[in-house]
Specification:
The complex is a heterodimer of chains A (383) and B (356). Chain A is built from 11 helices and 8 strands. Chain A is of the alpha+beta class and 383 residues long. In chain A, a hairpin with a 5-residue loop joins strand 6 and strand 7. In chain A, the strands form 2 sheets. Chain A has a 4-stranded mixed sheet, covered by helices on one side. A 4-stranded antiparallel sheet of chain A has the order 2-3-7-6, with no helix packed on it. The mean pLDDT of chain A is 95. In chain B, strands 1, 2, 3, 5, 6, 9 and 10 form a 7-stranded mixed sheet that branches. In chain B, strands 4-8-7 form a 3-stranded antiparallel sheet, with no helix packed on it. Chain B is 51% helix and 15% strand. Classes of the chains: A alpha+beta (383), B alpha+beta (356). Chains A and B meet through helix 7, helix 8, helix 9 and helix 11 of A and helix 6, helix 7, helix 8, helix 10 and helix 11 of B.
Chain lengths: 383, 356
């Protein structure tokens, strides 16, 4: 079995040091009542929290100093994000920019984009959304129809994007658009652009999710003008760039810690003397989590070595989101619970309600389970 | 070159040599003969000549000086090749006995899962208690066990010669047809040289980690078999690997295998630390669960052929179905882990999961 590897070298000292710092920061945040862990997840949008996290040096840590970063390793970032998620911190505002938009701009952006945008991202003042999916292009990303055509010194974009999380609150999207012919492999002719949502020519329509929340949007572009220095990478290089992002998008702790606070609440509600079934089920969940944490750490280490661990990342997300989906199902077997979003007096029913209503998205966002299994199968040599 | 690099290069060299050796020597014929009850003595001798039983012993004691965490990679390899010998047991028993200051012994050894009782009489000790399903209990030269006496916990090495007539009932085999003997230790006497101070109870957890590593290896073999079979087997005019249903089944199995390797390594790295029992509980729970799921999937992929002795898959899957229940099944270890976690409370879980 040479298809994938999950070596886990010990964390370097600077990662352990970052772990101490972020724990102290989160203890102050949570202890000061600035957020309520069981009502938050990494998709909870809280610009004030992000500003404080940025000021404390927890955003963009892997980027070079000249753009506001700290030139740290991926393992340092891994530890920071891992700790934020475990503590239930509301990271949603800066999450996408820190995880994938920033690294894309760093690698493929113009000098102006790097200089103007990245320092603000690091300070927790500038937020991003992902503009990949379209109404007719979900899992089949190569079917993108939004077009960008040359216009003077820049480009005009026409089309629409969907499932654009927080488009009504973030400052920029990175939009994948068709700029040329797709070619035989369907992967040609795609280019990415940094789109400023405050400019004219773009409208945002809310889409409410099944918990009633407003995270998603549909975004429409009509002769939207992008200057050429807001293009990312070469014309036609978009496909390689979006697939390169996926190892970052799929391997992180956000793929198995989405409902970690539910597990914590569950353990505390059961108390120190579980019955046999409660003990066995809690033990089982913890055994899954321990394995996932190690798998994810090892992908962070592979990313540090400059590899593209796409199969490993798909495995983390497939196994991790399956775990996330199981936590609420097990919780309701172990205790007599009736979930409710309104039951603020009791933490567990409220937490369970949030998780049950968000759980279907765990195995869809960032690549469906079925797409991931196809990638794993390719890694195994089956296709 | 620093010492750590030199050590890991030595380990890699040993692992490569062992892999080549086992690939050549653990043939289907050898496995079939072991299944039929023939003791594979020639294979043991080959492994002994290659230094495998003593791999974890210090170099001064004639071993290769491999550390426990690296030794577990070798144990996984033994699982991959379904080695029909108490070789992993011997490697670990040798390491524990030597670390406890025991005098060197040669030949095959095993680990006894249950702890027994011990009483001192002058320069001799007398054991009491019974141990069930001891791996190769009547075939090995020495049995390593933990026993309590008035002063605390002891590590005891019992020579086979002291156990004449102590086997209980008919010989029993596990699902892989490996011998698992019940032994009555009542009134068995051992010399004081065979009794050492034991720092803490470790044998049962170390046995569980050993089986977890062997299962990780056996699962890797199962996936290798299944991927090759799916590429070769043609139905409806194409290899069955081209069907999405098969691809997704094998992708799911790969996920369980990857999680199993991560969990097993977590246990190996925790050796010698305060988190060892926590890590082993997580490892045996996760790996045991994966073993059942991977075995089910690879059999489904192999169809009727995998259900026969015409195909070697069964040498690996019957071991998975045996090993997952030895040294505590998932039920035991999940419950143990759940009690540890609940007793410490929700806020203590994260520090435990992320302890260095």
């Amino acid at each position: 079995m040479q298809a994938f590897r999950f070596d886990a070298p010990p964390l370097p000292p600077e990662a352990s040091e970052a772990c101490e710092r972020v724990r102290a920061f989160l203890a102050t945040e949570c202890g000061g009542g600035r957020y309520v862990p069981h009502r938050c997840s990494w998709s909870t949008f809280d610009p004030e929290f992000s500003r404080r996290a940025g000021a404390a040096g927890f955003i963009g840590v892997t980027w070079p100093r000249e753009v506001g970063g700290q030139a740290q390793s991926s393992l340092v970032r891994f530890v920071i994000t891992r700790e934020m998620l475990a503590a239930g911190a509301p990271c949603g505002a800066h999450w996408i920019a820190d995880r994938q938009s920033g690294p894309q701009i760093l690698r493929h952006g113009s000098e102006r984009a790097r200089r103007e945008i990245l320092p603000r991202v690091c300070r927790g003042e500038c937020f991003f959304g992902i503009g990949m999916s379209e109404p007719d292009s979900g899992s089949d990303l190569a079917a993108v129809r939004t077009r960008a055509r040359r216009h003077g010194e820049g480009w005009l974009i026409d089309g629409s994007k969907i499932w654009t999380s927080q488009a009504h609150r973030v400052h920029y999207l990175i939009v994948l658009a068709r700029t040329g012919e797709a070619g035989e492999d369907r992967h040609g002719g795609l280019t990415q652009f940094i789109v400023d949502l405050s400019a004219s020519g773009v409208t945002v329509r809310p889409i409410h999710n099944l918990s009633g929340g407003h995270e998603f949007n549909e975004v429409f572009f009509r002769e939207y003008y992008v200057p050429d220095d807001m293009r990312l990478g070469d014309e036609g290089a978009g496909w390689a760039m979006v697939t390169g992002e996926l190892a970052f998008e799929r391997s992180g702790p956000d793929r198995f810690l989405s409902d970690y606070r539910l597990l914590v609440e569950l353990i505390d509600t059961i108390g120190p003397e579980p019955d046999a079934r409660q003990a066995a089920e809690i033990g089982r969940l913890v055994s899954h989590l321990a394995a996932l944490l190690r798998m994810s750490t090892s992908v962070a280490a592979l990313l540090d070595e400059g590899r593209s661990p796409n199969t490993e990342a798909a495995l983390v997300k497939d196994v991790g989101t399956a775990f996330e989906r199981e936590v609420p199902e097990i919780a309701r077997l172990l205790l007599p619970l009736q979930p409710s979003l309104d039951d603020h007096a009791q933490r567990l029913p409220e937490t369970l309600a949030h998780v049950v209503l968000h759980a279907p998205s765990f195995t869809i966002r960032g690549g469906t389970r079925e797409i991931l299994r196809g990638i794993i199968a390719r890694g195994l040599g089956l296709r | 070159m620093n010492t750590a690099t030199a050590d890991s290069e030595l380990t890699n060299l040993l692992l490569e040599q062992a892999d080549r050796l086992l690939r050549a020597e653990v043939t289907r014929e050898v496995l079939a003969r072991a299944d039929a009850g023939a003791c594979p003595t020639p294979l043991w001798e080959i492994c002994e000549q290659a230094g495998l039983p003593a791999a974890l012993l210090p170099e001064a004691a004639g071993g290769a000086g491999i550390a426990m965490a690296d030794g577990m990679r070798l144990v996984r390899q033994l699982g991959y090749h379904a080695v029909p010998l108490p070789l992993a047991e011997t490697m670990l028993a040798q390491a524990l006995w030597s670390a406890a200051g025991g005098a060197p012994v040669t030949g095959s050894m095993t680990l006894v899962a249950e702890s027994l009782a011990l009483r001192r009489r002058g320069v001799r000790y007398t054991l009491a208690g019974r141990a069930s399903r001891v791996p190769w209990g009547t075939a090995v030269q020495h049995l390593l066990l933990e026993a309590h006496d008035e002063d605390g916990l002891r590590l005891v090495l019992v020579p086979q010669s002291a156990l004449s007539g102590k086997a209980v009932g008919e010989p029993v085999r596990n699902l892989a047809f490996e011998p698992r003997d019940t032994i009555d230790f009542d009134a068995v006497e051992v010399d004081e040289a065979m009794v050492r101070q034991a720092p803490r109870q470790l044998l049962f957890a170390l046995g569980a980690l050993m089986r977890a590593q062997q299962m990780a290896g056996a699962m890797e073999r199962c996936l290798d078999f299944a991927v090759s079979y799916a590429m070769e087997r043609r139905q409806f005019g194409r290899p069955i690997a081209k069907f999405q249903a098969i691809q997704h089944m094998l992708a799911e199995a790969a996920g369980h295998y990857a999680a199993a390797v991560a969990a097993a390594d977590l246990g190996a790295d925790a050796w010698g630390g305060a988190q060892f029992e926590f890590a082993v509980a997580a490892a045996k729970s996760r790996v045991g669960e994966a073993a059942g799921k991977v075995a089910a999937i690879v059999h489904q992929v192999h169809g009727a052929m995998g259900f026969t002795q015409e195909h070697p898959l069964h040498f690996s899957t019957r071991r998975l179905w045996s090993w997952r229940d030895e040294f505590g099944g998932e039920g035991h270890w999940q419950t143990r882990l759940g009690h540890l976690v609940c007793a410490a409370g929700g806020s203590a879980l994260w520090p435990a999961l992320t302890a260095d």
